[in-house]
Structure formats: C-alpha cells, structure tokens
Amino acid sequence: MGLFGNVFGKKEEKEKATTKVPWIPLESMEQLEEIAEKSKTRTQIIFKHSTTCGISRMVLNMFTGSYNLGDENDIYFLDLHAHRGVSNAVESKFQVRHQSPQLLVIKNGKASFHTSHGAIADTDLKEVV
After folding, report:
1. Sign of CA dihedral 44, 48, 49, 55
2. Other C-beta atoms lying within 10 Å of the C-beta of residue 113
C-alpha cells in the first residue's frame, strides 16, 4: 500500500487544497438583493466562472489554490452558463461590465473592486476586502 497510499494520499491533499474556498452558489436574482444588503456589514465577493472557458478554469484553479481569507467574508460562485440571467443582473445591479472570469468585491451595496481574467490571480484579496 505504500506507493499507492502515497499517490492517493497526495491526490486527496490536492483535492482538499482546491476545496477550501467556502463557496455559496449564486443562483437567483433574490440573492443579489441579499448580497447588497449584507455588504453593508460584511464584505461580499462574487466569482463569475464560465464552465466552457479554459482561461476561466485556469484562473479558478489558481484562485482556489491561493485563497486565504477563511470565512471572514461571504464568497459566491456564479456559473455563468447555468445562470445567465443572474450574470446579466450582476452587471446591471453593481454597474460592472460583464467579463469572464470575473471577481467583484461588494461593500456598502456597490462594487468597491473588480477585476477579470489573469488579473484575478494577481489580486491580493486581503488588500481589497
């Protein structure tokens, strides 16, 4: 079992490292109102992801691998293809032009920070939340 245990053990460690983000699925328009309201007392973060885009997948993997905020904020995951209407509403509600992948930080009902594509991986979230 030694070799196989090590191989499988490392795989499990890798999976744990990529699941440490406390994602909240963003699936409804009603949640956008909740996000705006909650952002008055607790920073809200939205990660918009395209399941058909290789760049989006790469950025998501880098983001999850380096996420270090714990549960101090609420962080939402929006699957753009499954919830296109919600994605469009994010653009309208927070006045941020749609891109994919995209990261938005919501404070006091407004987008206080947003970025997209490779710049997401370069962002120090602790500085912008």
Report:
1. negative
2. 17
Structure-token match 């990660």, residue found: 47
The residues near 45 (Cβ < 8 Å, ≥ 6 apart) are 73, 74, 75, 76, 103, 104, 105, 106, 125, 129
Amino acid at 117: H
- Distance in angstroms between the alpha carbons of the first and the last residue of the chain: 45
SS3 letters across 86-109 = HHHHHHHHHCCCCCCCEEEEEECC
Tens-digit pLDDT string for the chain (129 aa) = 454 455 555 544 444 444 589 999 999 999 999 999 999 999 999 999 999 999 999 999 999 999 988 888 999 999 999 999 999 999 999 999 999 999 999 999 999 999 999 889 888 888 888
How far is residue 75's CA from residue 104's CA, in Å, rounded to a whole number?
A: 10
CB environment 79-104: b (16+ within 10 A), e (fewer): bbeebeebbebbeebbebeebbbbbb
